[in-house]
Design brief:
Radius of gyration: 17 Å
CATH superfamily: Endonuclease/exonuclease/phosphatase
Shape: globular
Number of helices: 5
CATH architecture: 4-Layer Sandwich
Number of domains: 1
CATH topology: Deoxyribonuclease I, Chain A
């Protein structure tokens, strides 16, 4: 069985490519981030025609998360308990479309799009830290209630875990994604019991900016990966980052990460 995570960077522009990639790579479940569309705009038929059920959470041209599965899509949850809100338009705090989950053949799969943070002095940075802290707290509670739980946190984490996960750490000094607080917030989720399932099998970057020939030069970062509960991680036998999916003209600036178990 294969579960993948992929920041698709606008699903309406890439639905046929994404579905074709899933079929060629025999993906059973795909967690998608940054779909950039409302629920009524999501190209559901492209997935249904290929045998995938879909659950989506989106509210416009930003954010958006989805799960496509051909092995079951039950007990869909939109957001997690105590998920932080953010006032992005001055109209009051709202819960952004950043978290969705479903039960897929007994596995609770979460598709998560962690806030970017923008700048270290931006309110969005505090929001990001609060968001990760809330995820850590609820994740620890899940594992405490059921140590045998099969849970996958598949995400664009918008955090670079270590200096080994970026082509040039000096370029990120004093910026988001590498700050001590962000890395500590991510490490706290790991300390709560979740494991980086792909890391033993690949250390490839997963994101390359469109500008300055970053992909051609392999000047990337690793920000897309899955943190799994111990019971799920014990079943993992292989993983890879599909760099080929980043190559075509018009592709997402992220590559999909696939875990096989």
């Amino acid at each position: 069985m294969r579960i993948a995570t992929w920041n698709v960077n606008s699903i309406r522009a890439r639905s046929e490519f994404v579905v074709g990639w899933m079929e060629r790579n025999e993906i059973d479940v795909l967690a998608m981030q940054e779909t950039k569309c409302r629920d009524d705009e999501f190209p559901v038929m492209s997935f249904l025609a290929s045998g995938y059920d879909v659950a989506h959470l989106g509210n416009g041209g930003f954010n958006g998360v989805a799960i496509a599965s051909r092995i079951g899509l039950d007990e869909v949850q939109y957001g997690f308990e105590h998920q932080p809100t953010f006032d992005s338009a001055g109209a009051g705090p709202v819960m952004e479309a950043r978290a969705i989950s479903a039960l897929c053949d007994g596995i609770r799969v979460w598709s998560l799009y962690v806030p970017n943070g923008r700048e270290l002095d931006d309110p969005h940075y505090r929001y990001k830290l609060d968001w990760l802290a809330a995820l850590r707290d609820i994740g620890a509670l899940w594992l405490a209630h059921d140590p045998a739980a099969q849970v996958v946190l598949a995400a664009d984490w918008n955090v670079i875990p270590t200096d080994d996960d970026v082509w040039d750490p000096a370029l990120f000094a004093g910026k988001t994604h590498v700050s001590e607080a962000e890395r500590a917030a991510l490490a706290a989720i790991v300390d709560a019991g979740f494991r980086d399932s792909a890391l033993p099998y690949t250390d490839s970057y997963t994101f390359w900016d469109y500008q300055q020939l970053r992909f051609a030069r392999n000047e990337g970062v690793r920000i897309d990966f899955m943190l799994s509960s111990p019971a799920f991680d014990d079943r993992v036998r292989a993983a890879f980052v599909d760099r080929e999916a980043r190559k075509p003209k018009g592709a997402s600036d992220h590559a999909p990460v696939v875990v096989e178990f």
